[in-house]
Amino acid sequence: MEHSERPHPNYVAVFIGLALLTVVELWVARLAWPKTTVILLLVFLAVWKALMVALYFMHLKFETNRIRIMVVAPLPLAVILVVAVIQEFR
User: Fold this and answer.
1) For 7, left (φ over 0), alpha (ψ -120 to 50), or beta?
2) What is the distance of C-alpha 18 from the center of its chain?
3) I need a labelling partner for 71 at 20 to 30 A (CA). Which of 31, 34, 40, 48 fits?
4) pLDDT, position 69
5) Residue 29 has what pLDDT?
6) What's the rounded Cα separation, in Å, for the pair 31 and 78?
7) CB burial readout 24-33, b (16+ within 10 A) else e
8) C-alpha triplet 43, 45, 47: angle, nearest 5°
9) Residue 56: which of 20, 4, 21, 14 has the closest Cα?
10) Is the pTM of the predicted complex or chain greater than 0.90?
11) DSSP 17-84
């Protein structure tokens, strides 16, 4: 099996990006905006951070589409399960 050289991500830059997004999340959490708006912003930022972790620290950015599809395929089920649990507590 031949080993192919792939570029390594700049882990320090990714870490700084994640840290900045965390600071933004803390700032958004303290805003006096409607609760729904704050929650939607926080969820968006959390998804953005999770995407950065998956792409760079889990090396999905450098994988084939087959591997990416395997990772993304269960996500709709996760969303359905979360929505179902939220509906139970309404």
Assistant:
1) beta
2) 10
3) 40
4) 85
5) 95
6) 29
7) ebeebeeeee
8) 70
9) 14
10) no
11) HHHHHHHHHHHHHT--S-HHHHHHHHHHHHHHHHHHIIIIIS-GGGS-HHHHHHHHTTHHHHHHHHHH
Alpha-carbon dihedral sign for residues 59, 64, 67, 69: positive
Residue count of the chain, please give it.
Answer: 90
Q: Can you tell me which residue has the tokens 């269960």?
A: 74
Distance CA 66, CA 88 (A): 35
Contact criterion met (CB below 8 Å) for 71 and 60: yes
Q: What are phi and psi of 66, to 5 degrees?
A: -60, -45
The pairs formed by 55-62 with CB atoms below 8 angstroms and a separation of 24 or more are 56/9, 56/11, 56/14, 57/11, 57/14, 59/6, 59/9, 61/9, 62/6, 62/7
pLDDT along the chain (90 residues), means of 10: 70 95 96 90 92 86 83 87 81
- Look up residue 69 and give its two tokens: 């599809």
Question: How far is Cα 86 from Cα 81, in angstroms, rounded to an integer?
Answer: 9
